[in-house]
Amino acid sequence: LQSWEETRSLIPEKGPPEEDPDVVVKGWLYGEPRGGGARPWLPPRRAWFVLTRDSLDQFSSSGKGARRLRSLVLTSLCSVTGPERRPKETGLWSVTVSGRKHSVRLCSPRQAEAERWGLALREVIASKAPLETPTQLLLRDIQESCGDPEAVALIYRRNPILRHTSGALYAPLLPLPYGVSAP
């Protein structure tokens, strides 16, 4: 027989974790609706957010049976901007978390709360092991093999995108250090 603790970990919980040691910060914030930049007339909705060591989760309420609205897995490729005040749009302080494909904007009426969430998100992301995108790995292989023309030719043969692309190659969301703007 398995102990109650082992069994509990095998059962997926529907609501936010109540007393999970992995929880870094949790609380009520305003979340911008998906595609918020495309629909600025929709006001931010109040939701329960839980930041763990692995993800940022948004729930409909803070109760046990709350429905998970969305989740963003945090990796070393994620970045955080803000907090910044948006007086014309919402009048709230916002912190934006950007992943490789999705972004989540957290809004709060209080600057201190927005700063607390921004700092916690940055600490979680900084604690992650560095990841390399396939494009970064390919570029590194080419740089390491630049002295051997046969090795470079082999890399070009195995990666048709290098032969059939007339324009520059762009790596998907290379992480930028905090406080440094893109060129």
Automatic annotation (TrEMBL):
Top-level taxon of origin: Eukaryota
Database matches in InterPro entries: Actin_motor_Myosin (IPR051724), PH-like_dom_sf (IPR011993)
Signal peptide bounds: none
Keywords: Phosphoprotein
Region feature (Disordered): 1-23
Record-given protein name: Pleckstrin homology domain-containing family H member 3-like
